Amino acid sequence: MKRVLVNGAGGFIGGHLVKRLKTEGCWVRAVDIKRHEFAEPPADEFIQGDLRDPHLVQAAVGGIAEVYQLAADMGGAGYVFTGEHDAAIMHNSATINLNCLEYGRLAGVKKFFYSSSACMYPEYNQLDPNNPKCSEDSAYPAAPDSEYGWEKLFSERLYLAYMRNYGVQVRITRFHNIFGPEGTWCGGREKAPAALCRKVAETQDGGEIEIWGDGEQTRSFLYIDECVEGVRRLMESGFTGPVNIGSEEMVTINQLAFTIMEIAGRKLSVRHVPGPLGVRGRNSDNRLIAKQLGWKPSRPLREGLEKTYHWIEAQVGVSRSAEAATGASGGAEINPCSE
To answer: Is 100 exposed, middle or buried (0-12, 13-18, 19+ CB in 10 A)?
Structure first.
């Protein structure tokens, strides 16, 4: 039985990945600074601790053949692009990756998966919302639009350096806006699909939701199941990467919002307000993944949005019920996710 470690298993993608690895018969050790908020991953062992701590990492990598490194200090635009968290983002994520590689290779780990991000692509190639350039070979000259992206680029190079100098195997992906059930949907770190699903679920017919900017900025969004499929295919392949894992179905944020409204069966208006935006346009270029893996994501965006919206709608209902119960009992604290 293959023994694997999933760092960041208390998070969205990590939690889903643990489930997939268990269905494939792996023995899984999971590590995260927090427990999963929505669905306890079915790991054989869960270590709740801080991966910035060398002693914890030394214990976590013992007896492990493969490491999936998804742990990072991250969030949506409201967390990454304000500039208020830059130092923490860079320090925390870089420290985790340095620990993971050094103590992993000393413990005899043979293969590392690293989850990079499309945020490492140059801002100058993503100014036109209709024609963003995100092919893997466009990464240099480097000019990410956030410190989050700079740290991801540094860590990509770190993993490749360890591969060259120490002979470990490395697999690197650049994720493009992964979404789905059991992910953060409130509190400031949620991504656009979850934030818009929440806003629509909380708003009655005839109401209004807010969108940052003019809503004409473009993105592609990949459903979690295809993300995990891509990760497993890359890990079992002979290709190092980096390679994009994302959808090629590019939409504006306005289109995303109105699709969610259609799914919800609600007629709402949109008010555009100032807010952190990131690059003007971004879309996954899937030519390399198709060539190297003989596969690329293909599910329609709406299919994933339907599943995600109904899951978040249920979470909103639970949150409101908890608020009502707390208010009725005279409690002073309400659910922090409610607005």
So the answer is: buried
Catalytic residue among 148, 159, 162, 223: 148
CA–CA separation, 119 vs 130, rounded Å? 17
Please give the helix or strand (H or E) that residue 255 lies within, else none: helix 253-264
In terms of DSSP H, where are the helices of 107-203? 147-166, 192-202
Query: Tokens 């109401």 map to which residue?
Result: 207
* Residue 47 phi, psi dihedral angles, 5° rounding: -105, 115
Number of separate helices (H) and strands (E) present in the chain: 10, 13
| Domains of the chain, earliest start first | 3-179+223-245 (3.40.50.720)
pTM: 0.91
pLDDT tens for 273-305 read 988 788 999 999 999 999 999 999 999 999 999
208-260 residue pLDDT tens: 999 999 999 999 999 999 999 999 999 999 999 999 999 999 999 999 999 99
Burial group, residue 137, by CB count within 10 angstroms (0-12, 13-18, 19+): exposed
Q: Closest Cα to residue 192, out of 164, 163, 222? A: 222
Q: Is 280 exposed, middle or buried (0-12, 13-18, 19+ CB in 10 A)?
A: middle
Identify the three-state secondary structure at position 115. strand
Amino acid identity of residue 95, one-letter, is: T
Q: Is 148 a catalytic site residue? A: yes
